[in-house]
């Protein structure tokens, strides 16, 4: 079982499905890569959702504040020019649907999984770090001169436990 | 006869989208009520005559399955049709919802047509349009 490819394919399918169905616009397929450990400085909106089960980890979406507003405007059919509660809520729901789609695909291969309630962060020049994770599968989707990055870090639960003893597997430390 | 509909989801974005879609269904709606979780939904149900419930499954405090169980276990709410709207693709929770008496479910992401189609089938049985 090539989990990496399953996750990449699932992300592509979920993003395309969510955008074509609810946001109104075709996306993808995205460009995939692997990011090892080091957090990248972020500007804009970043969301996280915990994945738990026999495999555990974190799913994440990140994009500029402009793209977050554009997504919110299309999703809710309202004009939004600045990040507000409505935009953060829209990104949280987008995360829920995209990572939820990935989870549904993965369950066929790794058994039942659960998702946490998503968390969304908005700011400038902040870093995020998922404790214990060493590898992120990243798929980047260009959209109207901007970019949506979908990231998933997932490992068998035993391995996650070894990497981060006594630490919740999907806790995210944030340096602002 | 106009109906009162209750939309239950912890996402204000989804509640707003569902409000819009419901208005487009052609269904005679008197009011659309909202709740952010199952517990809030029970309070709305206690204060209003609700004819249809659309609810998410995964919510904090009280999830959609607990809400459904509570509805089906209460005499005055037992006949209210409940439609689950969820990202859950796993058979376990969907099967549990059906076993508890859900009238149907729609998977997120959804189109307006999917919601309309699902409600048309259910409302034909339960409500005058």
Helix content of chain A: 25-40%
The percent range for strand residues of chain A is: 35-45%
Strand pairing plus helix content of chain B: what structural class?
A: alpha/beta
The CATH topology of chain B, please?
Rossmann fold
Q: Report low-confidence residues of chain A grouped into runs of 5 or more.
A: 164-176
Q: Low-confidence spans of chain B: pLDDT under 50, at least 5 residues?
A: none
Architecture of chain A, according to CATH?
Answer: 3-Layer(aba) Sandwich
Order of helices and strands of chain B: EHEHEHEHEH
Global morphology of chain B: globular
Largest sheet of chain B: 5 strands, parallel
Tally the beta strands of chain B: 5
Q: Return Rg of chain A in Å.
A: 15 Å
Assembly status: heterodimer
Taken from the alpha-carbon principal axes, the silhouette of chain A is: globular
Which architecture of chain B would the CATH scheme give at its second level? Answer: 3-Layer(aba) Sandwich
CATH class type of chain A: Alpha Beta
Helix tally of chain A? Answer: 4
End-to-end separation of chain A in angstroms reads 38 Å
Count the strands of chain A?
Answer: 8
Q: Radius of gyration of chain B in whole Å, from Cα?
A: 13 Å
SSE blueprint:
The complex is a heterodimer of chains A (176) and B (129).
Chain A: H1 3-23, E1 31-36, E2 41-53, E3 55-63, H2 65-76, H3 85-110, E4 113-115, E5 119-130, E6 135-143, E7 146-156, H4 157-163, E8 172-175
Antiparallel strand pairs in A: 1-6, 2-3, 2-4, 2-5, 3-7, 5-8, 6-7
Helix pairs in contact in A: 1-3, 2-3
Chain B: E1 3-8, H1 12-24, E2 29-35, H2 38-47, E3 52-55, H3 64-72, E4 82-86, H4 91-100, E5 104-107, H5 112-126
Parallel strand pairs in B: 1-2, 1-3, 3-4, 4-5
Task: Give a short overview.
The complex is a heterodimer of chains A (176) and B (129). Chain A is of the alpha+beta class.
